[in-house]
Amino acid sequence: MDQNGRGTAAHVPGEFVHRADPADIIPTGWTQLRENRFSVSARWPASHPFFSPVAGDRHDPVLVAETIRQTTMLIAHAEFGVPVDDQFVMWGLSYRVDPEALSVDGLSSDVTVDVICSDLSSRGGRLRDLRTTLVLTRDGRFLGTGTAQARCTSALAYRRIRGERMASLGRPVPLIPEVAPHLVGREDAKDVVLGPGNRPDQWQLRINTAHTTLFRRPNDHVPGMVLLEAARQAATATVGSEAFLPAVMDVSFSRYAELDSPCWIETEIVPGADPSTTTVRVDGRQDGNSVFQCTLTSPSRELAVAGAGLGSRLAG
Predict the structure, then answer these.
(1) Cα-flanking dihedrals φ and ψ of residue 10, to 5°?
(2) Which terminus of the chain is more exposed, N or C, with fewer CB under 10 A?
């Protein structure tokens, strides 16, 4: 706070959002408004090798998830003193956005995120758990809302929890063949995170540790963003439309996805009363155990492209 009680904006170091490449850093500054409430400025990249427009002319909704993830980590490190070498685990993340507000044309790339932190718990004087509730606006227009639940674990405790799994840190992972990029809404094979499965509604997670956006550093498990992208790609393939626009998403993680065992991605379309939307449930399983569950809802193909009249339905 400044001497007049107003929050002052600050620069965002890459280590606060766990990103090394400046092109991948979404928040541009933050201001404390009052206790446990903050305003974060962000900028969505006009062009990015991974977060490219979808459904013709919309910002990738997964940018919303990444904005929520980076914002939550930023506040934890910058305002609650979480050391930058702590492990940061998202156990749940959700968002709901107005599809029309995702338009690439006609609006700036600047996004404002209003953040409220709650359900804070500490251990040994260090933040352990927190929940963030976020409202996103763009050019003063409502964009969407989101939530995240996260846990912070010290580097020492994390090594103890992971045990022998730490031996897989940085170990090469065989790259399995990818499905055709156009089937999962991608243009480049390097961005495909699914390989063929044993039936039409099943795929094997494809792990490309050389992908600099999805694997920003050597890791001992599969990052959550890879699993979220796998859910989106599997939903796209299930619906059979590159115009699949996940305007509503809710994901929960139940355990780490390991690098050395096949992770199977399975989908089903969830019947709904609204014919103008399609909801897909995605399950990730490994060694017979659930790794994550995700539901994604998109406007129908025609409305996803046209963007007509769905703002109040999906954003409300």
Answers:
(1) -135, 155
(2) C
